[in-house]
Amino acid sequence: MHVDIVDLRQFYHSMLGRMAEQSIAVALSSLWARLPQERLVGIGYAVPFLDRFRADTERTFAFMPAGQGAVNWPVGEPSATALVFDEELPLPDASIDRVLMVHSLEFAENPRETLKEIWRVLAPGGRLVIVVPNRRGVWARMEHTPFGSGRPYSRGQLTALLRETNFTPGASAEALFFPPSKIRAVLKLRRSFERLGRIFWPAFSGVIVVEAQKRLYQGLPVAARASRRVFAPVLAPQGVPTARVAVQRKA
């Protein structure tokens, strides 16, 4: 089950959330410095991090899963947000250069199908970065943050999943070495925890950040897959088709 959009937004507006955002942003910047004139899509709740990249991109979109809900983004500008199903993205083949997944893969109903869909929309040589809770970390065990929900991953599990779905795992980073405490005295020591954690206990980070590249030299098996989604029209006028038929018959 996805974390609700209201809870996600509330977390990132809190002091603990802002600290977590800064820690993850440092890890992301070590993998992606700038994205000049590239097309970027954030999937899940990636808006705190998309703001850091979109100034250089050609265009940036925020795709939010239907089970999570969506908010308007960017604030005060024309919306670049879309409510989507992560297995059926509303994009043409090979149309996106970069994809950033945050608060996404751990909630996916079928992670393999989700990654195959991302493979479809990525351009040749396109890159994907996934941020997921670390199975060994403390953050995955604390339910008062969004990282304590969903399915956490180990580095080996994430690497194997990427290879199964035709991605080549590349550089990686870690973040959230400080404890997920709301006590101000603990949060003030965040920088020290982060610095020491990268040196002494990197395997116990709160999240794992992995970059992967779309692989082209191996074929994907083709299988017919019927959509599990049922789209029902909302506020559709009733009886209109019948009325039109009656008019045609009289004519």
From TrEMBL:
The family database entries (SUPFAM superfamilies) matched by this protein are listed as: S-adenosyl-L-methionine-dependent methyltransferases (SSF53335)
Kindly give the InterPro entries that the UniProt entry links to this protein.
Methyltransf_11, SAM-dependent_MTases_sf
Q: Which GO terms describe its molecular function?
A: S-adenosylmethionine-dependent methyltransferase activity
Domain Methyltransferase type as annotated: residue spans = 87-130
Does Transferase show up as a keyword for this record? yes
Q: Which UniProt keywords apply?
A: Methyltransferase, Transferase
Q: Name one GO biological process term.
A: methylation
**Name of a matching Pfam family:** Methyltransf_11
This protein is called what?
Methyltransferase
Query: Does this entry carry the keyword Protein transport?
Result: no
